[in-house]
């Protein structure tokens, strides 16, 4: 007994792979060193360019810009989610006409740049000013903010409809059939059986969509909405100080990274029953 | 009031030729960015699947930064940052020099790094889909690691990565619209000018959207052809 365990200890293991300074390893550390040098020079630059006057003047406007960005994204994501429900329904229905219309909608909004869509709504609807004034909608389409929300909601609705459709279709057909065999109605099946499974699949694409919207929302600065990017452009055009852009980059980056980790955390939490 | 067709004609008072020039700029920017982004993306993916932890870290930092920044901000960072940086370098030699960065090049670099950070993820998942046995097989028939990469891994990698890359191409095509913000005369910029001059904003931005749709449709035909071609080579083996 003890002899066998002795031999087990003495068994020669295969040699561990060499841990010398291979070319790859040197290059890897050189690249990490390069990144650290860049990060360090960024810190040094921001420290040396530190200007209390500038900070006191523009920090509040950056914060209000950040608030505008977050509000814009939140409002348009929620409106888009509501709008995506009928689109998703039409996309999955067997009715030819509904299907074609929703397919065209989704294809248009996914196939054209968000910038062009925003311009189409903000500048383009100005062509119909008399008609819009006649039906009392001009005060809505005159404001850049409302136009931005409108364009973003329409855009994200197309993407969210596709996410929802993919998630619902990822749930097997047997689930519907089993529920109907148990006597559940279609709506009950959707709420109690299919959606809980589909939303796990949809969580990551939804998180990506929110991140894409935050990044995409920077373009509203071009149509004079003062979001984070708009405030940055205004600060840069007044001071010609490059650190204005670097601060915005740091803010956006931390925002997106926070969200990404949040989505990771939520996903780990709600899929605990699937891990062993 | 001119008719729509007169406005879109190619004559001296039509805007057709200006829009066509915009299409040329958009398409050539996207086509020039593609190889740059693919090359950088492939190298970053190589770093991210390396056995060396420092290499992986360096690659992941690259992706995190350029995937997290808004594309428009990256564009401005490259455009103004490079301008200031190069200007300071040149001023060491000639103090009175004024440097202007070509907005086409700035757009190419900015869109290229954004494209490459997404492409590296696509390549990485394709690398993970290739079993280890392929590398070991290449080693056992006496191929060097470079030859294994070129002759064994790359052909399979391309086939697996193709759907993801074609998605990225469509995204790139749409992202080129952003360069209008740094003054490059692409489709959006040209239609803005036309809209301002003629006051037919809805028509011109609508046409711009339709042009992007047409480009997307043409691309998907091209992608379909490439996929069939790659699939045929697969079938022959």
UniProtKB/TrEMBL annotation, chain A:
Annotated stretches, region: Disordered: 1-20
GO BP: any one term: amino acid transport
Top-rank taxon, per record: Bacteria
GO molecular function: transmembrane transporter activity
Pfam families: BPD_transp_1
ABC transmembrane type-1 domain residues: 66-263
One annotated Gene Ontology cellular component of this protein: ATP-binding cassette (ABC) transporter complex
Recorded topology in the membrane: Multi-pass membrane protein
CDD domains named in the record: TM_PBP2
Compartment list: Cell inner membrane; Cell membrane
Spans traversing the lipid bilayer: 26-48, 68-90, 102-123, 135-155, 210-229, 244-263
Family: Belongs to the binding-protein-dependent transport system permease family. HisMQ subfamily.
Listed name of the protein: Polar amino acid transport system permease protein
Biological source species: Aminobacter aganoensis
UniProtKB/TrEMBL annotation, chain B:
Ranges that cross the membrane: 20-47, 68-86, 106-130, 151-172, 201-226
Keyword Nucleotide-binding (UniProt): no
GO CC annotations on file: ATP-binding cassette (ABC) transporter complex
PROSITE patterns, sorted: ABC_TM1
Record InterPro entries: AA_ABC_transptr_permease_3TM, ABC_transp_permease_HisMQ, MetI-like, MetI-like_sf
GO terms of molecular function: transmembrane transporter activity
Topology versus the membrane: Multi-pass membrane protein
Superkingdom of the organism of origin: Bacteria
Places the protein is found: Cell inner membrane; Cell membrane
UniProt keyword annotations, A-Z: Cell inner membrane, Cell membrane, Membrane, Transmembrane, Transmembrane helix, Transport
Domain ABC transmembrane type-1, chain residue ranges per copy: 23-223
Primary localisation category: membrane
Entries under NCBIfam families matching the protein: HEQRo_perm_3TM (TIGR01726)
Family: Belongs to the binding-protein-dependent transport system permease family. HisMQ subfamily.
Protein name: Polar amino acid transport system permease protein
Organism for this UniProt entry: Aminobacter aganoensis
């Amino acid at each position: 007994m003890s002899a066998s365990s002795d031999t087990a200890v003495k068994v020669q293991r295969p040699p561990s792979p060499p841990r010398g300074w291979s070319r790859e390893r040197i290059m890897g550390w050189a690249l990490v060193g390069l990144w650290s040098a860049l990060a360090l020079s960024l810190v040094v630059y921001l420290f040396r360019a530190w200007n209390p006057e500038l900070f006191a003047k523009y920090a509040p406007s950056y914060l209000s810009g950040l608030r505008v960005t977050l509000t814009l994204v939140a409002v348009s994501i929620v409106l888009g989610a509501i709008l995506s429900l009928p689109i998703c329904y039409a996309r999955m229905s067997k009715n030819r006409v509904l299907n074609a219309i929703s397919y065209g909608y989704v294809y248009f909004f996914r196939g054209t740049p968000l910038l062009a869509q925003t311009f189409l709504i903000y500048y383009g609807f100005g062509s119909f000013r008399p008609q819009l004034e006649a039906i009392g909608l001009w005060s809505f389409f005159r404001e850049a903010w409302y136009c931005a929300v409108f364009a973003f909601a329409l855009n994200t609705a197309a993407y969210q409809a596709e996410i929802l459709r993919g998630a619902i279709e990822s749930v097997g057909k047997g689930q519907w059939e089993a529920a109907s065999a148990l006597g559940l109605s279609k709506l009950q099946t959707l709420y109690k059986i299919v959606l809980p499974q589909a939303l796990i699949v949809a969580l990551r694409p939804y998180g990506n969509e929110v991140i894409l919207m935050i990044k995409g929302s920077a373009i509203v600065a071009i149509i004079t909405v003062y979001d984070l990017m708009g405030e940055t452009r205004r600060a840069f055009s007044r001071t010609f100080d490059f650190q204005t852009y670097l601060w915005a980059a740091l803010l956006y980056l931390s925002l997106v990274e926070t969200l990404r980790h949040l989505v990771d955390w939520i996903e780990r939490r709600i899929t605990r029953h699937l891990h062993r | 009031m001119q008719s729509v067709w007169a406005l879109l004609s190619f004559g001296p008072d039509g805007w057709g030729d200006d829009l066509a020039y915009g299409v040329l700029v958009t398409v050539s920017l996207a086509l020039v960015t593609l190889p740059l982004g693919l090359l950088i993306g492939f190298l970053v993916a190589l770093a991210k699947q390396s056995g060396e932890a420092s290499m992986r870290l360096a690659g992941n930092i690259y992706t995190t930064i350029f995937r997290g920044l808004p594309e428009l901000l990256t564009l401005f960072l490259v455009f103004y940052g490079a301008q200031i940086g190069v200007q300071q370098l040149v001023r060491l030699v000639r103090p009175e020099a004024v440097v202007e960065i070509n907005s086409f090049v700035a757009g190419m670099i900015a869109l290229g790094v954004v494209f490459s950070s997404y492409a590296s993820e696509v390549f990485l998942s394709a690398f993970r889909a290739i079993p280890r046995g392929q590398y070991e097989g290449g080693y056992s028939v006496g191929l060097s690691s470079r030859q294994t990469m070129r002759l064994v891994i790359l052909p399979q990698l391309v086939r697996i990565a193709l759907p993801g890359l074609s998605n990225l191409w469509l995204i790139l095509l749409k992202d080129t619209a952003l360069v209008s913000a740094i003054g490059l005369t692409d489709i959006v910029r040209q239609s803005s000018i036309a809209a301002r001059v003629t006051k037919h904003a809805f028509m011109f931005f609508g046409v711009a959207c339709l042009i992007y749709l047409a480009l997307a449709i043409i691309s998907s035909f091209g992608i379909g052809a490439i996929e069939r071609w790659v699939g045929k080579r697969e079938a022959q083996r």
